[in-house]
Amino acid sequence: MNTVTIDERDDRTVVTLNRPDARNAINAAMIAELHEVCTQLEARPKPLLLTGSGGVFAAGADIAELAGRGREDALQGINSRLFDRLARLQQPTVAAVDGYALGGGAELAFACDIRIASHTALFGNPEPGLGIIAAAGACWRLADLVGTSVAKQVLLGGIRLDAERAHRLGLVADVVPAADLHTRAHGLLDRMTRSSAAALRLTKLVVDSPGGHPYVDDLAQAVLFETDDKRDRMARFLTKETR
């Protein structure tokens, strides 16, 4: 891997975007390497922590590459296909955002299930200033996350969301000092890994299902009710309660 570093652990995968000289700008090589990460996580599902090196999450897509792309490249959805794949991973994904998360970097963070930010985190989508749109999910994911009005302020008005405002809007779960960012993110993952992997997977499927439906809830619950994991966890809970 040349553009990301991977810390593979028994209960999680930690991926760090690592193009510090380019402020972790997302280029074709990084897209390819993140597809490899997705392939691994699809084969062996576990939570993912995604972060950036050098005090920056990702300051955007690589403009030098974008400048040379044409219609056929756009129709391939080079970035959007990856971000959709990331969003569909079976287990939870957490973005630990320090510094800039702009353009494609913001869209990458939006594709994760949960975001935790340092005090210096800054989200924005300046694509119209370059003559393009935020075509890797921001035009609809951001509206889902913070509402249409705020999304238009960011996408049309060029307004950037600092960490505190992003927290007030619910875009990020917590704002912490940069020195504590990874510790807090791992604490969240620790809590997740104590839960049932099957329950997390099905919860994510139900939450992400379009136009939620009680029958989907019923089917997911029916699967979980028949698992040994559910029986063991509830037996331990009841044993503890009767002591």
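the 2nd protein, sequnce then structure:
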Amino acid sequence: MLNYRHLYYFWVVANEGGFARAAERLDMAIQTISSQVRNLEASIGHQLLKPSGRSVVLTDAGRAVFLRADEIFLLGARIPAEAAAAAAAGSSMRLSVGLSDGIAKLAAHRLLQPILKTAGLKLVCHEGEVEQLMAELALHKLDLVLACQPPRHNFSFRLSSDRLLVSRVDWYGPASLVTDQAIAAFPQSLGNLPILAPTSHAALRNRMDRWFEGIGLQPQIVGEFEDSALLSIFAAQGMGIFPVTELGAADLGKIQELRLLGCSQGLSEEIHAIYSSRSKNHPLVGKILQNTINADGAE
């Protein structure tokens, strides 16, 4: 194995142009430095320095070694400053969360609220398909995944999950569609109204389709959206009626154009926290798992 102390002595000699000046810089005997450089040459198997008058110059092999040593020791010189910067940032706490496509973002925000006031928090959120996010979780690129369903039993990575939320699904829409007559006839009025729905990426979509079948309605789906927030914006512009969890609906009051049509019976949304054995020990993940929300949407 390469002796980096010997390499350092060689590097200093090459920079100073001779053993005498290197010895002065290192406050060491010339004979000691010369012996260490010879040991390096022996270990590499090539002469690295050759005399040139009162100084030394690099051989071809020595030039190649010097260029690499230059990179090594210039990088090494940065270590103290980088260590100091890392120590200064040590009070910060990073949490990387994956949000699966179709998850109610407003509900996800509420589930993350217990940790949002953490001093020095750096929260990083990624969105994607649940399979991709769980693979990144297994590779420790994420600390937590929030998804509408737990991992499959045959999933290739060993992951655990807790159900954080079971929340009733409510239906909202623009005032032009949510009339008093439509409210009174709910849920049957949904059969006569344009519906905005989550895409098949969302577990809620499958539950919603089964729910409509159970109450004998064929919905007029006029739009499908992966992003629940985008869905609410299109609804507010008059495009249709859409489902939202009771928990997520708490933030819809900011959109004045929307009115509550009715509350589903037998249709609910689930959000599961998925984590690895390593990420479960993350203090912020533990705090999120401890703040499970019950079926009524109350903490």
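The CA atoms of residues 16 and 221 lie 78 Å apart. The first helix runs from residue 4 to 16.
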